[in-house]
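Lecture 7 notes: from sequence to structure.

We start with a single chain of 576 residues. Read the sequence below before looking at the structure.
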Amino acid sequence: MRPSRAMFPVTRKPFWASLVSSVLVVILLAACGSSGGLSQSLAVAPAMHLGAAPHAKMGGTVIIDNVSGSLWTCGFNPYGPSSAMLAAGIVYEPLIYINPLNNAQQSWLATGYTWGNGNKTLTFSMRAGVKWSDGKPLTAADVAFTFNLMKKFSGLDLQAVWTVLSGVRQQGNKVVFSFKQPAVPFFYYIADQNYILPQHIWSKIKNPVAYNDSKPVGSGPFLMKSCSPQDITYVRNPNYWQKGKPYISEVRYPAFLGNQPGNLFLAQGKANWGGQYIPNVKTYYLSRDTTNRHIWYPPAGSDVLLYLNQTVYPLNIRAVRQAISYGVNRTKVSQLGVYGYLPPANQLGIIQPTWQSWYNKSVGAQYGASYNMAKARALLRSAGFKLGSNGIFQKGGKPLSLSLINNSGYTDWVAETAILRDSLRAVGIDVKLQNISGNDITAREGSGHFQLLYYSPTGGPTPYYQYRQLLYGANSAPIGQTAASNYERYHSTTVDNLLDSYAKTSNVAQQHAIINQIQAVMVRDVPVVPVLQNVNWFQFDTSQIVGWPTPQNPYAAPAPYDYPDWEVVLTNVHQK
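Now the structure, written as tokens:
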């Protein structure tokens, strides 16, 4: 299972790449020019009919084949590090759904919203008649409670929204979010990336951060029926607020420790929705049923990266980090590690061609080629390292040797890191691979107990979101405490101020100027090393279930590990 909204095409689809303007820009078109007491509202489409089939057949089961690299812990806390993907969307829902493929917005628990007070106030109107799965009504009070709970327990505030929020309050059937400054980019986090909790249950929980939530009570289209380490079963919520939905009766989610058993399960036709890397997918998967089996790998708004722990020697030396970036042969990692399905990334962290308009050409030209062994070695020598007789640089008698942790269940990532290791070995940097379980990865990345980590942020519709997740100081934490996303523990007051300034302005030219400066930081400081550009892995079988997202009808991000998108998919697919 990949990080939500973050993942890997046989071909890249141009429709998504052409939509360079983000959710942020769409909102800004409505918000630009507002000042003082003026308010701007942006209509959102009703949730009922997006991708819906007019005469859908009821019943049937969707079986998900998505490799997590771990067994299930049977926790459904939507703010938990390893449980969010099992509950977010399908059990607990957001206020507004934002389609990352085309930035279309869908009303969900909220029917609409209004910006006011110079983009420092955001008011949501709540949908009437929504009930929790235990029959109690979901109201604006639940929304205010959820966000105020995040303020009280910062471990729930995974996007650090309380760095800009000054208050959240109920106002009748509305919820009013007040900001310390204009904060339009935070709409994406607040509306789409946080999930509403029932106050009558969660107000009684002493430690909601550690709460397992083994018997979740949500507002979503499915109820968790049973869970074991090997399998989860969800069943249709008969009282779901979208009348007539979902069409399917059951969702099964077996656990897989690696791609090989998961791919075999999918190839044998035992699952109808896949979300992982399959080598030689045409022969292994598609050829077994050319009529009903399909793949679609649209690009995602993030990179796969090397996180470089800033707190440990020798990664706290800038020249070492720069040398690692020059020493990674991204093209070879792409071609040999993953059949070219994931294009090479760049050190600027700008996804091509999706974010082409944001790319700082002058910084790119100054940086030069992404792979340069001679430059990498020169940087290490400038930092006092000498090349030993064994081909490895050393300093003070200690070899330049680093350990890299990676999810053992992702065979594509295992292959990629092996090529990455060989690439750095040729430069003179020794890398020892530690392929560990998904649960161990989650624990160690959050606590900072690693030197190098191969992983991916969740990303978003513009470079701002990936940068903020990677670089913003409030998303980090001391070693031993859980970081929300800044796993490498990068801290820069300058970068924090740049990201804050971006959130304050609705001037697109100023936003581009800010992102240009951050690209220069990415090259100069090298807090992380982007290796590959993500896509959404998506395999689907139409022999029994139809209504899947397609390039012609991209109504949701199609990977089963994308949330809340998987809820949208599961409320639209139906029996053939």
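The first strand starts at residue 40 and ends at 42. Keep this in mind for problem set 3.
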